[in-house]
Amino acid sequence: MYHWPSQPAIEMIMLLGTAKKDPSNADEKPLTMILEGSSMKLNQLNYNFCGSLGPISYFDLNCSGKAELSAISFIPKTGAWTRGNETLQCQAL
Question: Fewer C-beta within 10 Å: the chain N or C terminus?
């Protein structure tokens, strides 16, 4: 008889990336971001994964239960990253 595990397995994926408002601007200091497991590390803060709606993943320090209200939205396929009014373009390193 097969028993389902009590905790779902989480794949550990680590991605190191940088994000800029203008990727072609060599003078702009990039923002370093690490996606590891179900969290995003950014500027010494650890944002939790709050869920996804379509291609958009949402992260926040404290998830509210409504993913779309999270502090950060990120589209991994395109690299589009948004926090409040700040929109950056990210790329994997």
Answer: N
* Three-state SS at 69: helix
List of residues 6+ apart from 21 with CB closer than 8 A: 28, 86, 87, 88, 89
- Which of 34, 50, 14, 39 has the alpha carbon at shortest distance from 90? 34
pTM: 0.73
* pLDDT tens, position by position, 53-66: 999 999 999 999 89
Torsional class of 68: left (φ above 0), alpha (ψ -120 to 50), beta (otherwise): alpha
Domain boundaries of the chain, sorted by first residue: 14-23+32-92
Half-sphere exposure of 48 (CA within 13 A, CB side): 7
β-pair type (86-92, 80-83): antiparallel
